[in-house]
């Protein structure tokens, strides 16, 4: 009886080890959906900070549209309470700070990211910067508005474009900023 139990426990431990090693060695998920019109676009990891908080929860991820006018989500939504400071993720120049369709929007053209340059957008945001201002990574560019969010709870919509092409803004962040902490194994019962 003890031998059977020992075999079962050892089998479970080996299976858990195989699953864990497989997960650790698997390539990361693609930043772009298969067949996406922007799947071949390279985004340099120039970001140095999250737009809000230290590691905000992504409420809704990037869902690239299959066509220019197709459905999708052209950015990511990050949890953030009204009044939370919004920061530039990388160095750049403010290309727009104002209201669009009743929402506060700030756009920053990122320095040294090609032609046309990458441009990040943040909304709904009350701007503390003006068009033409130079900003550094982590510099406060505004605060989260209490109204204007398309999320059920307050959030910041963070977008990224090169010209007219929407890209995944999470691609701007280096892997060490995206990581949420150490992996943990579940106990074997």
UniProtKB/TrEMBL annotation:
<dbReference type="GO" id="GO:0004222">
    <property type="term" value="F:metalloendopeptidase activity"/>
</dbReference>
<dbReference type="InterPro" id="IPR016047">
    <property type="entry name" value="M23ase_b-sheet_dom"/>
</dbReference>
<feature type="domain" description="M23ase beta-sheet core">
    <location>
        <begin position="72"/>
        <end position="169"/>
    </location>
</feature>
<keyword id="KW-0732">Signal</keyword>
<dbReference type="Pfam" id="PF01551">
    <property type="entry name" value="Peptidase_M23"/>
</dbReference>
<protein>
    <submittedName>
        <fullName>AmiB activator</fullName>
    </submittedName>
</protein>
<dbReference type="InterPro" id="IPR050570">
    <property type="entry name" value="Cell_wall_metabolism_enzyme"/>
</dbReference>
<dbReference type="InterPro" id="IPR011055">
    <property type="entry name" value="Dup_hybrid_motif"/>
</dbReference>
<feature type="signal peptide">
    <location>
        <begin position="1"/>
        <end position="33"/>
    </location>
</feature>
